[in-house]
UniProtKB/TrEMBL annotation:
InterPro entries the record matches: DUF3943
Pfam families assigned: DUF3943 (PF13084)
Span list, region Disordered: 1-23
Protein name according to UniProt: DUF3943 domain-containing protein
Superkingdom, taxonomy of origin: Bacteria
Residues covered by the DUF3943 domain: 81-183
């Protein structure tokens, strides 16, 4: 039967990647799911920002390539999906692996199998239309096989995770399996530890178009000139705000 957890006692220390307690029948943790998705989105832009400031010798990203990445290029990539020419192991092993981890994250937040599939589809879409679309067009087979095969893999490994969780102690191999099947949950747990566990995350995107004003020479030294001068080219913005106590 279901395990009844005594909320008056603190839960025992769990290894990274443990996730939801066995027998936990509480409703799905939708705030946690939103936070996981927000972290996932933020990690991608952190990586892009890091690559942007690193020297070419490390990032393999030339100044000319950096200048090419505009909103128009991103929009062209997301509106012209293609059949991805990547190597087979990338499309049919690596991407489904990540789809499995998204599915597992959904299940560990209390989603049903169907709900976890759609959560995997959502995170796959965030990746395809976010980070990857800065570099190449959206991949048709990634949108199909990442959540599709990934969810099947996640479903298969659920029994393995349950068996490990039911143990009273965890070997190095057990802990490795938990982390590899839920790396996003593991990383989010670490980040939560940095900013306190009682935290909230807000994620907001915005778009700014050029704004042109009309002014003459008398306005050149006006302190309000920056409000009427042409702004920089169109750009996308991302505001990531974390509140903690």
């Amino acid at each position: 039967g279901n395990v009844i957890l005594d909320s008056s006692e603190p839960p025992p220390e769990r290894p990274y990647g443990y996730g939801r307690e066995l027998g936990d029948t509480s409703p799905a943790d939708y705030p946690g799911l939103r936070k996981d998705a927000g972290y996932f989105f933020g990690y991608q832009f952190f990586i892009v920002g890091l690559l942007y400031v690193l020297p070419e010798e490390i990032s393999a990203w030339t100044d000319e390539q950096k200048e090419e990445y505009t909103v128009n290029k991103w929009w062209d990539n997301v509106t012209h999906p293609r059949w991805d020419p990547d190597e087979w192991y990338i499309n049919y092993i690596l991407h489904p692996y990540w789809g499995m981890t998204y599915y597992t994250r959904g299940r560990e937040r209390g989603l049903s199998e169907t709900g976890a599939f759609w959560y995997s589809f959502t995170l796959s879409s965030i990746y395809e239309f976010g980070l990857e679309a800065l570099f190449e067009p959206v991949s048709i087979q990634d949108m199909i096989f990442t959540p599709g095969l990934g969810s099947l893999l996640g479903w298969y490994f659920e029994d393995t995770r349950r068996e490990i969780k039911s143990q009273s102690s965890y070997s190095f191999w057990d802990q490795t399996v938990l982390v590899l099947t839920d790396p996003l949950g593991t990383l989010n747990t670490i980040v939560d530890g940095w900013i306190e566990t009682d935290s909230e995350l807000e994620l907001r995107s915005f778009y700014r178009s050029p704004s042109f004003g009309i002014y003459d020479d008398r306005d050149w030294n006006s302190p309000y000139r920056q409000r009427i001068d042409p702004l920089v080219n169109d750009y996308l913005g991302l505001q990531l705000t974390v509140h903690w106590q």
